[in-house]
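Both lines are retained for reference:
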Amino acid sequence: MDLNLMDKLRLLRIDTELRPQIKMKPMNRYYFVATINPSEQFFAFVSVAAWLIRKTGTDFEQPNEEDDPNATIAAILDVLREKEIAVDFSSHKLKQGSGDQVCYILSVLADQVLKGQNFEWQKPVVDNMYDEEAVDDVDQVEDETEIILDKVEEEMGIYSEESEGENYEVKEKEESDFIGKVYDLEAWKLELERVAPALRVKISADGRDWRTRHAQMKAYKDQLFDRFKTTATQLSKLHSGITMTMDKVTARENILNEQFEGLIKEYGKMLSELNKVNNEYKEASVGVTERQEALNELTAKLEIIKQKTESKGSSMNDNSPLVSAKESSGDSEEGDSGDGLSDHHFTLDVKYKRKSKLQQRIRYNTRSGR
């Protein structure tokens, strides 16, 4: 792992060219070493890689947070293969945005950019103003500095993003001025104690990023499984209690069925008989209704016949025709006696015919009414 990666990126002016463009937060020396925020580190990695590829003279589109990570990684690896850079690891290891593979790719691309700019590393000029004992003390201070930096890495996220953005430029200028000067050992220790708390960095994640949401889903899943371990025993006991209660209810139901089996059968028989009687009653009710209607019709016809019979009887008892006949016969006494006798016989014959016809009609009406 190349620990000079951030020095190479600063030599290529990442703080002035790329960081303001994509609104990237300041990165410490070990930003790509350990996993802190996978989604943010992955976006920073692909952005820096794309920026370095463009600096080598190859066209490469600047990635977005919404792009497919697999497609972006595949495009970066294709460019590396075209430049004959060895890539003997899986692309899955690059999705975390940190680790040896990420540092390797960025370091190789940075070396190519520096090589294209004819940049050469020179050996450091050592100032021999301190004796060996002082050098040992400086080494000890450097070891302590590394320990403090490790603690700073573990405690990242304490200070807010606003205070960090406002103070970063001032801190960078102070650090550059501090590096250009030479201090004695005590002044170095005091300066280290002063700036160590300020090295704490907070990197806030964007809640709209799908990687952040994926990380939240994973955390929720882990919490769910942890809570399930505590509730599984309670759920198991509850299930056992419900099962026992259901078994008791089933056994009691079977006992009741055996005890009341005879009554249930008797009830079934009585119910079937009741249904049969109800059906017979309905059929009988229908027959009675029909007969009642027929009786009403016959009664009406009988009344009509009675009225006709009474009217005919009254007409038969009427003597007005006979009286009129007698009067007519009295008027004709002066006439021929033979003619009077014939008229009398004719009148009797007419009455007899009328009476016979009336009797026939009465008999016919009586038969038709029946």
About this structure: The longest helix spans residues 261-316. The chain has three domains: 1-121, 210-259, 268-369. Residues 1-121 form one domain. The chain has a mean pLDDT of 74.
